[in-house]
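<given_protein>
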Amino acid sequence: MKKLLNFFKDKNGRVVIAQTPNSPLIGFILFTVLGYVWSSNQPKIHNLFEILSFGFIFTWAWLEITDGVNYFRRTLGIIILIVVLWFRF
């Protein structure tokens, strides 16, 4: 049980599962919503928002993998990166 709990602890011993969204995550949410708003009206703008949304979620996942506060956040970054790349390509 202690090893499982260590999976969720940061370097200060606090359990961290969720954090306030950082700018790449906010950008992903913003451009995803904007992409749905312009999904049928203007396809070029929709494609631009899709590309920006992908860039922001990729950046967020990469930052979690490299700078995540605990192993849970790093694993979450790996999973999200795999899922995003799977659906993108």
